[in-house]
Amino acid sequence: MQQRPVIGIPTQNLKSIDRIPEDLPDSWIMNQRYFLACVSVGAIPWMVPLLDEDPDTLRGIYDRLDGLFIAGGVDVDPSSYGEERHELCGRVDLPRDHVELAMVRWAIEDGKPVFGVCRGMQVINVAAGGTLVQDCSLWTDAIKHDYFPGAGWDRDHLAHDIRVAETSRLASAFGEAGGMVNSMHHQGILRMGDGLVATAWASDGLVEAVEAAREDQWMVGVQWHPEMLIDTHPGTRRLFEDFIEAANQYHNASALV
What b-and-e string marks burial along 151-161, b requiring 16 or more CB atoms within 10 Å of the CB? Predict the structure, then answer.
């Protein structure tokens, strides 16, 4: 029977979300869609608490994982990549930044598989030493990227097309060098992190996907939300399946050490 890999999904602070009553108790939460998408391709998801002040426990959790899934959410705090906050930067969650950045950096060192979506792609880039543009309106000739559900858009709305590098994990899963994606972000990659390569772009040149330059590490970040497309787009399902297969291989290799 094939191993079901354990995939860690870091949470977010409830109070980092807009329009939440301040008198609610401190809580860690995360959108169910990420967990359901991972379960649908055979993984066991593990909800990771934001124990940013307890690195020993956090490392203990990390060591039991076969892969990391870094989800979407609020903005990465500019202090996490050494820049001053721009007035267009939105709500942030520093404990989440600390936990996700630590775990991704450990995974880069260990070769553990990482899949990041939307904010998750940006976290991968920052963990590798890159920076972000704090609002896409600051990007030259920017198209619209912020098709947020709160403004009336469905989460699976296919907002714009992308161009995919032909020799990439993404193209291998998609079986094509382009396609339409949903888009719910207002930040993006400015300077690429070390050891990463861009593998997809929007028509305005904004990076829409990154991968590890190393062939021996499965690390993919996409700027859209594939968890909403996994049931309707075969290439998206294959991308999730590839991630889980990589996590299986990592588990099996670790068991031999």
Answer: eeeeeeebbbe
Average pLDDT over residues 236-250: 97
Q: And the tokens for 203?
A: 């028509």
Going along the chain from its start, the domains and CATH numbers come out as: 6-255 (3.40.50.880)
Phi, psi (deg, nearest 5) at residue 45: -80, 145
Task: Give the mean pLDDT of the chain.
Answer: 96
Rounded Cα–Cα distance for residues 221 and 87 (Å): 26
Kindly list the distances between the CA atom of residue 205 and the CA atoms of 129, 162, 189, 243, in Å, as whole numbers in the listed order.
Answer: 20, 9, 11, 26
Mean pLDDT of 180-197: 98
Q: Indicate whether 96 pLDDT > 70.
A: yes
